[in-house]
Amino acid sequence: MSKRLVISSLAAAAAVAAGTVVFVSSADAAVPAKPEISGATAHYTRTAGGSASLTFSATVADNSGVKSLRVLAWPASSGLAPTAGEMREVEEATCKATSATASECTYTVKSSAKEAAALPEGVWHVSALATARDHNTTFAPQAATFTVKH
User: How does pLDDT run across 15-59, given as a tens digit for each residue?
Assistant: First the structure.
């Protein structure tokens, strides 16, 4: 079974965002005993008016099913190093089951022009915490990156 881990998200001025995903690449592959995150994408966009949005989408899989996916985006320049425990307090992506063991998760954050202008420019990291129905977790401290440009 091949797996990919790619996660991305956005944060408003406080650097909070969401989403993560796991994807099992073949139908006959063994379902993971701990949550897995893969196939994730993040799109940060700015409008002509200066507002911005971050949309994160991913797939999460676990043999007991998927309970939640939590995501935090933070500027690399901040030196922040979130822990799995801290991730339990951030926002959740919306997850929809695609099978008994996998879910597609999506999170969108929108910010005003003022909030977007206050975001630090440059590379941002995304941390993600996937939780299964049996309460097993998988923490990816730097699951993905994206770039904020003004």
Answer: 333 333 333 344 435 667 899 999 888 889 999 999 999 988 889
Give CA–CA dist 32/22, Å, rounded. Answer: 10
Please tell me whether residue 126 adopts helix, strand or coil conformation: strand
The residue assigned the tokens 């022009």 is 113
| Residues 20 and 72 sit within 8 Å (Cβ to Cβ) | no
Structure tokens given for 10: 């956005």
The pTM of this model reads: 0.76
Check if the beta carbon of residue 102 is closer than 8 Å to that of residue 60: yes
Rounded to 5°, angle at Cα 104 from 101 and 105: 120
